[in-house]
User: What shape does this take?
Amino acid sequence: MAVNKHPETTARVKSTSGQDRKGTDGRDPKKYRVVDAEFHYVPSEVFKKVDESVFESKEGKAVQDWMRDPRKKPAAQRLQDLEGALRHMDECSVDMAMIMMPGWEMAGMEVCRILNDGLAKAAKEYPGRFLPMAAVPYIEGQRSIDELNRVKNELGLRGVSVLTNLRGIRLDDEQLKPFFRKVVQLGLPVVVHPPAQERGLWGGTKYDMDGSVSREYEIIKCFVEILCGVLPEFPGLNFVLAHFGGGVPSLLGRIMSWYTPPESSGLSKGKIRLPMTIREFEDYGLKPYFDKLFDRFYFDMAGTGGWTPEVKHALAVIKPERLAFASDYPHEMSRPADYKAYLDTIKGLDIPEEDKVRILGGNMRSLFKM
Assistant: This one.
């Protein structure tokens, strides 16, 4: 169930960092097969294509401006350095990285096709090290459907990454139903991330809110839209949301207290009084249906800079089977020492070993049938 009704769980989660590291070579015991669920890589061909393009849309221009911004040069260099990424993974004992680059969908289909080709090439050149997520601009109708077919059947990609919104089109928009029907048909999990190059999100750039709270608001807003407007109609869909769902552990209680089930649930809305207490939420019979939907989400654990309190909080309200270690490399965690410290925090938690195995890679291996 979505909410842990045993408060003692929180008290049990305490850090004993570093106790699980064994061996003279510095690598972890193989019970921890680490999969990083948010790891960014962009082939150099994509940068070249964007640099040469003439964009008419403001979204395409935003990607080009981001790429050409001198302040972004270090990040751009790291994003293209596949060998450097592998060295980082080896130093940090990471077995596999889920590679993607959210935001480039804003530049259109041609750019995404080049990106998808490059991600597939990386996975082919280094078998077992990379799990590539296709980038598909879902607003392009049949072209989007065709690209889904191509990335699954020709390139062999196992999942698709989408933005929380693209040109203002949200994931619960009616026009995206054919897209999601094809995703279900192909058996592709969906990874959701906010558009990193979009600076005009709620809050704007003042105090760098576009990077701190605005993106998180964008993700959690998308979480509610998927929960209420997508999952009830598409029971075969599973979503991986970035950054703990933008703060789902903190706001889950409030989301439940304002929850109204869809007509398709068969639950009566007549007696529901908004907002509800959590006891009313349960008394109205909403919890089993809500939990059934909630359990189709996975939440990656990037986005807070490796902050231990958020890990503990997440474990208090989200099943370990629905959490996935993630780093947001190279943006959030580019230093191996920070990366390893975050891994050690999770390995040192006072939770069952099988839960650590799930969080550090088992959940993603299961979702992607590896």
Observations:
- The chain has one domain: 8-367.
- The two ends are 25 Å apart (CA to CA).
- Residues 109-125 form the longest helix (17 residues).
- DSSP finds 15 helices and ten strands in the chain.
